[in-house]
Each structure stands twice: as C-alpha cells, then as structure tokens.
Amino acid sequence: MPLFSEFGLPTAVVNTLTAAGIEEAFPIQAATLPDSLAGRDVLGRGRTGSGKTYAFLLPLVARLAANPAPRKAGKPRALILAPTRELVTQIEASLAPLAAATGLNSVIVFGGVGAQPQIDKLRRGVDIVIACPGRLEDHVQSRHADLSAIEITILDEADHMADLGFLPPVKRLMDRTPKNGQRMLFSATLDGGVDVLVKRYLHNPIVHSVDSEQSPVSAMVHHVLHVDNASRFDVLTDLAASPGRTIVFARTKYGAKGLARKLNSAGVPAVELHGNLSQNARTRNLAAFSDGTAAVMVATDIAARGIHVDDVNLVVHADPPVEHKAYLHRSGRTARAGADGTVVTLMLDDQVSDVRSLTRKAGVNATVTKFRGGTHPVLQEIAPGERSFTGGIALTAPETDEQRNMQPSSDRPRRSRGPRGGGGSGRGRAPAAGSSRGGGRQGGSRHGGGHQSAGRQASGR
Predict the structure, then answer these.
(1) What pLDDT sits at residue 401?
(2) Mean per-residue pLDDT, 258-277
C-alpha cells in the first residue's frame, strides 16, 4: 500500500499521521486522494470500515491549509454532512489532530443537545462544520449559519442519509452552497436516492468503487442457530459471556432494553443503545462500552450504521432484521479494516423462511445448526473460550415523553420536513478487571476514530 507521504499532503499533516503510527493508505484512500487533492469532485463507494473518513478529511484539510483565509462569523469554509450524531462526533475526533496541526478549527452540529454553544462557536467563526442535516438547517434558517462561503462539501454515508429520509434537508443545504465548490460523496451503495444527489450536485465526478456493501461477508463466519423460545435467551447469554467484544442487535427499542436488563441480571455487563435514550444517556452508555464497564452493547437497527467499534469479535442478531441491507449494516460492525469476525443469527421456527431469504439476498452462506434446549458444542466453536459472568451494571433509564418533549432535538422526525439524525456509535470494550473475558486489542483497528495506535489507523470512518 502507498505511503501518505507520497501524495503531496502538507508536511504538518504527514507528520501528524506519522506520529500516530499511520503511514500507509487504505485502498479507498489511495484511489481517491490523487483526484480529491487535485480539486475534482469524487464519488467514492466503499463499505463502512473501509477508511472513508481519512479519504475526505485529508484533502479537506490540505485545501483549507493551502489557502488560509480570515474566519468570518457564521461563514464556514467547509461542510461535512453525516447521518448520525455519533458519526459526527467520530469525524470530529479524527479531524482534531489534523486541524490542530494546520491551524484550523471546527464545530459539531446536531440535535439532542443545546443549540446555544453551537451558535456561539459559529458566531466566533469556524473553518469546518461537521453536522447532521436537521440541526444545521435550523441554524441556517435562523441565520446563525451561512453556507455561501463553502469551498468543499462532503456527504458521508449518503446511502444511510437517504434511508433515514434526510434527502430533503440535504438538498436544501446543498442548494445553499456555491455551485463551483468541490464536492465529495461517500456511500456504501448507490441506490436511487444517492444517485439523485450525485446527478444534481457532483460535477463530472471521478468514481472510485473499492469495497461493495457485500464485500465484508468474505471476512466473516456466518452462523444461523435454529432455536426454540425456551432456549433463545440461554444461547444469547452463552455467546454474550464469551471472550471478546460483542454487539447484540434487537429489532425494537423495547427489545433492546429488555435484553440488556436480562443480560445484566444473568451477570453479563451490558448497555443499551436506541432512540429512547437522551443524547447524554447514549454518550454515557457508549463510554461504558468503550472503557470495559459494559461487556456487551445491545442496539437497534438505527444504531447499526453509527457504531464504529474497534475489534468486535461477534455480532449477534437476536432478532433477524427485516431487510438484507440491515443485515449487512449490522454485520459490518465486525470484520472491520481487514480483521475477521463472526456473525450469529438466532432463528425461531416461524422465521425460517424469512432468514433463508435474508441470507440469500445478502450473499451469505451461513452454517445452520438446530438444537433444542441445553448447550451445544457449536457455541464453543462459534465463540471459543471460558464464559465469564462478572455481574451486571446499573442501566441508564430511558427518558420520559415529557423529558423528550422538553429537549430541543432537531434530529427527530418532523412530519413537515422529514426525519432527522439519530443513531449510535461506539468503541470496543476492554476486559473488566479480574474478568476472564479476552477483551481483544484495544485501539487495534485502522483509519479515523477518536484514537490511533502505533502502525494502525483507528476506526470511525
């Protein structure tokens, strides 16, 4: 793989990457950087986990640093739009050392938190805005943000923004940016909604397709466990108590809450991540998952695309998703940045037909094991190692309807203007003190999250 020092990036940027042990470019970065650094519009297709964050942050920082300009109140020079609050936060974490090295600054903008601190930063002047579409549109409409000076615009995970119904606000925001500005769009798939954005806003874009959405399946081992209702939770508990990092997906927020509480009662430390939690609760739960206080993350589909976790060994679909795209999005939390991973789907009798269709459409050849009650040797094959039950943790209570109504969130659905940001993200867990769970390599994945380790790039594309 080529070195970042070979692309003509600013010396300060290369030195910052080198100091973090990041020297080699991933395929999506190596493919797009020559064109993006030349000022071309770029359409990059690559699955989540392929290194897209640095693919757009490096040319963005290089462009702004090469043409310094005084900051103007409310008039940023660069815009990054992303579908979830947690992804926005992770992009900022990846940007921070690069911005510090080049004298740039930024602000993150999303709902679920107070608007005034964001407004204050915008008024003082920022170079880069990283935002969910909903809250940023509020700031634009209230004239706290003016996009007329934007030189470069990035749309990250554009397909997920389309899935969440964000295309109307994205279009309204893009319409306010200069037509001659550089634009880059990164997406795992090029569905109809994304194609509309490409045709409307990208000018003769250079297309780079490195990883398809189905490409991670080859790096994963897929299992379907045909269980009955009586054994379903016992199987889930056994897998969750195995060594390594685990994410469990439930279909509903109530299901996620219930499974997290039952796992804690069984002695497996678990936290929940779903739309019924306030932003502060989501942040606390993610921190618990990151620092090893929680052994398992139980999440809903809406969190699937926002979670960027280092070294997740196991993904469990406690409830099979409805669509194969959701299966791929969920499963993509493991086998990131070249690592291996295991995906398990729990299937009840009345779900056999649906799961067969799901795996076929996802291009997955899964091993199916049927058993009733008790334990089964396949559980040790799927997740080897001693099971550890270190005790549950206190879960954050979901906010009430009254609290949700009081909180000024611009990222929840509005009938007149379409739904807005949400989702979740996080990091891998370390083993709890005294636990026999093997926590995996802390900070051992690559490209762009809030931390890096020597010779590797952290997660968080």
Answers:
(1) 41
(2) 91
Closest alpha carbon to 184 in 295, 293, 62: 62
Tell me the HSE value of 130 on the side-chain side, using a 13 A CA sphere: 23
Cα torsion angle, 194, 199, 205, 207, sign: positive
Tokens of 336: 């990131």
Residue with tokens 């880059």: 184
DSSP string, 331-350: HTTSS-TT--EEEEEEE-GG
Helix, strand, coil percent content, the chain, rounded in steps of 5: 40, 15, 45
- Residue 288 tokens read as 């618990």
C-alpha dihedral, 129 to 52 to 202 to 418, nearest 10°: -60
Q: Any idea which of 318-322, 332-336, 407-411, 421-425 has the lowest mean pLDDT?
A: 421-425
What's the CA gap between 259 and 272, in Å, rounded? Answer: 8
Residue type, position 365, single letter: N
List, edge to edge, every strand of the sheet that includes 128-131.
Answer: 106-109, 128-131, 78-81, 152-155, 182-187, 42-45, 206-209
Residue 279 near residue 305, CB atoms below 8 Å: no
In degrees and rounded to multiples of 5, residue 214 shows phi and psi of -90, -10
CA atoms within 13 A on the CB side of 102: 32
User: With 90 as the cut, is the pLDDT of residue 288 above it?
Assistant: no
pTM: 0.66
pLDDT at 458: 41
Other beta carbons less than 10 A from residue 148's beta carbon: 9
Most confident region among 11-20, 23-32, 280-289 by mean pLDDT: 11-20
Q: Edge-to-edge strand order for the sheet containing 312-317? A: 270-273, 296-299, 245-249, 312-317, 341-347, 220-226, 367-370
Question: Over the range 302-331, which residues count as b (16 or more CB within 10 Å of their CB) and which as e?
Answer: bbbbbbbbbbbbbbbbbbbbeebbbbbbbb
